[in-house]
Amino acid sequence: MAEAADDRLRLLIERVERLEEEKKGISDDIKDVYGEAKAVGYDTKIMKTIVRLRKMKPDDRREMDLLLETYKTALGLD
């Protein structure tokens, strides 16, 4: 029984390691895309903000925009 549990644990650990390696590969690919965008003149900081905004639910994005405008007005930034 203990041997089966040890095998199961080893397989799970190996699976996590493979996924971590894939994650690193994807992360490197994303960096390459941002590098390509920067090379042709795009602002990667703004691109990352847009990616983050597109992940948000529309209601959450509207709420954030409203709060941002409220804070900007309170600080006299507009």
TrEMBL record:
<dbReference type="Pfam" id="PF10073">
    <property type="entry name" value="GapR_DNA-bd"/>
</dbReference>
<protein>
    <submittedName>
        <fullName>DUF2312 domain-containing protein</fullName>
    </submittedName>
</protein>
<keyword id="KW-0175">Coiled coil</keyword>
<dbReference type="GO" id="GO:0003677">
    <property type="term" value="F:DNA binding"/>
</dbReference>
<dbReference type="InterPro" id="IPR046367">
    <property type="entry name" value="GapR-like_DNA-bd"/>
</dbReference>
<feature type="coiled-coil region">
    <location>
        <begin position="2"/>
        <end position="36"/>
    </location>
</feature>
<feature type="domain" description="GapR-like DNA-binding">
    <location>
        <begin position="5"/>
        <end position="76"/>
    </location>
</feature>
